[in-house]
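Task: fold both queries, return tokens.
Query 1:
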Amino acid sequence: MATNKKLNKITVLNQSKKSSDLPVQQNRILEKVVDETVSISKPTGAYINIAKILNLNNEEFNGYKSSIRDLIEAYIDVETSWEKQERRAILKIIEKFKGNNSHFPKTTGDWAIKELFRRSMNNKRAHQKRLKKKEMEVILKKNKSVITRDKIKNKVVISSSGTADDLSDKV
């Protein structure tokens, strides 16, 4: 019996036994009950749907993402990429996340938390980059400037405002 608790149990429930109903595959609900002592290993592939793999509904998953974003905002410099972050800082955030979210599914090597962390940081940096680009476009439209690139000096020249260095003072 002790080994049965550690193993994953799969229960199959038939909704209907009539042959005229939907196909047999659609009549079954597969419910996977995962024991908390077993950790979920990281699947292979380019993109991992974390919510689906961890069997989380949207509300739970969004709550965990919000928690990660709050921790990142409080403790991490988002300007620095994931690879260049200090490992101690990352480990501290993972421990804080685990302490605040004790019901988060256990994963091998905390891969799911690290992936949420990395995605959140990359999204935040990309969002800031889009905002800066949009601000630059607004300034250029207000000044009605024409941007050209001087290939010899490799500088961006703005006809009505001078160089791009002068423009950065206005931002």
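Query 1 returned. Query 2:
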Amino acid sequence: MEAGADQFQEETTHLDKGSVDIMVTHGPPAGKLYGKPGKLPSCVSELVTFVQPKLFLCP
């Protein structure tokens, strides 16, 4: 499931800690909420942890 992880990291490298107010993903990243490994690339979980959005939605 790590396909596209390099591109994702490239496109999000400009984000700083605290720079994201609202983050929305298609599902919970691994290790967050009910997220299970393999559903979303681990780089999504790493980004959520790093930027610490004020509101995180995963409908």
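Both queries returned. Flag for query 2: The beta strands are 22-24, 55-57.
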